[in-house]
Amino acid sequence: MGNTLDRRNKYCFGLGTVGRDMSYTMVSMFLMIYLTEVLKLPDHTLLIMTGILMALRIFDAVNDPLMGLIVDNTRSRWGKFKPGMLTGVVAGGVLMVLMFTDLGLSGAAYALAFTFFYLGWDLFYGLNDISYWSMLPSLSTDQKVREQIGSFARICANIGLFAVVVGIIPLTNLLGNVTGGLKQGWFFFAVLVALLAIIFQLITLFGVKERKGFFKEEEKTSLLDMFKVIFKNDQLLWVAVSMALFMIGYTTTANFGVHFFKYIYGDEGMYSIFALVLGVSQLSALVLFPVLGRRFSRKKLYTAATILVAAGYLWFFFSPMNMFLLGIAGVLIFVGEGFIQILMLMFLADTIEYGQLKMGKRNESVTFSVQPFINKIGGALANGILGITLVVSGVNRAGSAAEVTSGGVLTMKFSMMILPLIIIAAGYFIYLTKYKIDEKRYAEILSDLKNRGDIGTSNESQNDG
């Protein structure tokens, strides 16, 4: 990345997502932990809350394309991406904290308040998420530059994710001891995460300089155009299906972590150590990706990553409860999943130019609105799998690992490892048979767009904005 603006944008864009992903991880991975281990909801209430969570995430997911439409149609002195980022991170942070606040409510009153807070958080986080990630393809049309920026952003995202995964149990316990209870500990941890989300997002808001004059000025997108952008871009649809299957499998496994180590492994304290190993593994994969991307095609990298994931899941399933052996399985899974994460992001980015060639408009934000849509659908189904499994396996009623039956252990392990493996493998098969934008085809698309006058002839000629 020899261009000074590219380097500046790489670091300022990437650092902006550290706190955002801390906030998202709090809700997507640990809200269920809060409900079961802190509020200690009984089985019937847990099933109701599981149903509410699934319904809310699926309902709100359909709003994401509308959020993308709002961002694509934004015209301001700060560009079209930054207003949504700022509004989303501030409002979303407040609502996230409220979800982890003990308001002294129970029954229907708690369910109603929870529904309001969660739906509001989902809407504002979606606005921020779409604004943030849809800025990425506007920073460069060079695939390698995109990989550099995207890889660093995913590294920062995973730092945020694993900072919460590794730190949440010891820090909430510590804060709880200091403030007088575990509920208070979780509240103050949520406040800290919300503040960090805003602070890191300010780095992007003030540091990233968008390129102006490189892309042809386009008319605003209508509601009908929004549907065309999504449903007439066949490559976007296939990426969305493949990405959704990966996220369902990945999120399902991640969501089982605390319960697995507390009720199957038998030592909740080992979860943070295991998560640290996984975090280092995934970050290593993201650091290596640009290097390997210069030597191997994306198709070969995706194939190798899927093989690693499959080997890791099978190893984990059949492994005895030995931390070293489980650690090896975790490394295989999360190195592979790290590669798949960045590949999915790049596939999604490249469908923008494909759609521009096909329909005459870029629509970065409507295109990238499928990412939070997928994350929410994936999270909803993963939480559903977790909630149902906890009840069916008897884990939610158990006080310790000793109270979980062998059948319950098998049920947990199947839902955590075998089911996600099947789902992720299905996503790879969809990519292999349906996705056609390889490196050669993308170069042809860029050439056609340049000849048509829809984009400039060189990233270097773009001006700071």
Descriptive account of the structure:
The chain has one domain (12-206, 222-449): MFS general substrate transporter like domains (Growth Hormone, Chain: A, Up-down Bundle), CATH 1.20.1250.20. 79% of the residues lie in helices and 1% in strands. The protein contains 18 helices and 2 strands. The protein has helices at residues 4-15, 18-38, 43-61, 64-72, 82-99, 107-139, 143-179, 182-207, 223-231, 234-255, 257-265, 270-293, 298-318, 323-359, 364-368, 370-392, 406-434, 439-452; strands at 211-212, 463-464. Helix 1 runs parallel beside helix 7 (143-179) and helix 14 (323-359) packs parallel to helix 18 (439-452). Mean pLDDT is 85; it is low at 459-465.
Overall domain count: 1
Radius of gyration: 22 Å
* CATH fold title: Growth Hormone, Chain: A
Reported CATH architecture: Up-down Bundle
Amino- and carboxy-terminal Cα gap: 19 Å
Question: What profile does the largest beta sheet have?
Answer: 2 strands, antiparallel
Full CATH superfamily name: MFS general substrate transporter like domains
Shape descriptor reads: globular
- Structure summary, number of beta strands: 2
Instruction: Look at the helices and sheets and give the structural class.
Output: mainly alpha
